[in-house]
Give the backbone structure.
Amino acid sequence: MAILQGRSRLTLVLLVLITVTLVTLDVRNVEPFEQAKNAAEGALGPVVSGAQRAGRPVVDAWEAITDYDDLKAENERLRAELDVERGRDLANASAAEVLQDYLAEAGIQYVTDIPSTTARVVRNLGNFPDFTVDVDKGSSAGVRTGMPAVTSAGLVGRVVDVSPGRSRVRLISDPEFELGVRLVGTDAVAVARGTGRGQPLVVSEGIGVSIPVHVGMLVTTSGIDRSVYPPDVPVGLVAEVAVDPGLNQVLFVQPAASLDSLNFVTILLYDSGL
């Protein structure tokens, strides 16, 4: 037992001496030691380099994984900025379109001598054919029941209900809507009526076969004595001509105003005296 203990102490002492010697030689850059170290590094270099090359794809893959979240966040930020820009462009385009519509309706050329007020449509045609739209001007702006509503293109309808800040306009497409019209270029005066949404007006009485009529002729309000409408407001263009058994010409008139896409209308503050 004493012999084994002596050997253990001797081994420990030798290990300590070797360690101190190696440290001393490395610090002092002893040439034989440096040669041995360089030889070892040369022998182990290819192994280390190979290990590094073998491990590079793993490192690259890991870096790609860790960078993915940053790239995704950047893409989301750029996409959000693009959406904001698109929204701003659409808003600007919409505002420009509204302004253009307003200017077009605010400068009616064919009734410059009649006071008027331009109103925005706040309830357009719905799914049910009530043939009316609501506008944001009412009695406080001088609007009264029976006044005509027009656009820069022509007649839209007439006011049928009024409150201080709102009015309801019945469109000329209503089958119950009738108005006196004149066929421009002739002395013929007749009555036109609506036939439904998206359909032409029909003039079925008052135009005899002796009156020259052709497609494309302009039809306006007649403006005869005590008419609800002032004279010469465009109503539409003749789109088709037929002859009934009583030898009257039947005219199908395409409305001049686009009734399905109204944004603004002008209410003519016209007093017909009725």
